[in-house]
Amino acid sequence: MMGTSINPLDGRYFEKTRAQVPYFSEEALMKYRIVMEGEYLIALSQLSKTVLRKFTSSEIKIIRNLYEKFNTVS
Q1: Residues whose CB is less than 8 angstroms from the CB of residue 43 and which lie 6 or more positions away in sequence, other chains included
Q2: What angle do CA 59, 63, 69 make, to 5 degrees?
Q3: Other CB atoms closer than 10 Å to residue 31's CB: what's the count?
Q4: Which of 60, 61, 69, 72 has its CB surrounded by the most CB atoms within 10 Å?
Q5: Would the pLDDT of 35 be above 60?
Q6: What is the pLDDT of residues 43-68, one digit of tens each?
């Protein structure tokens, strides 16, 4: 299970670090990694210089849904 802590000091300093959690926590790292890799894959599919075929709009929507609906709760 991924946590939302930025560092071990979050317990003591949580009120001071709360605003950074959506951007610097482990959960945010995973979400934004999916954003970057998904958009990179979409961009590669749009280029004619790769062997990757061009994605359909529904396939692009599926890829973007991975991060738009990202949730770590099982």
Answers
A1: none
A2: 130
A3: 20
A4: 60
A5: yes
A6: 999 998 888 999 999 999 999 999 99
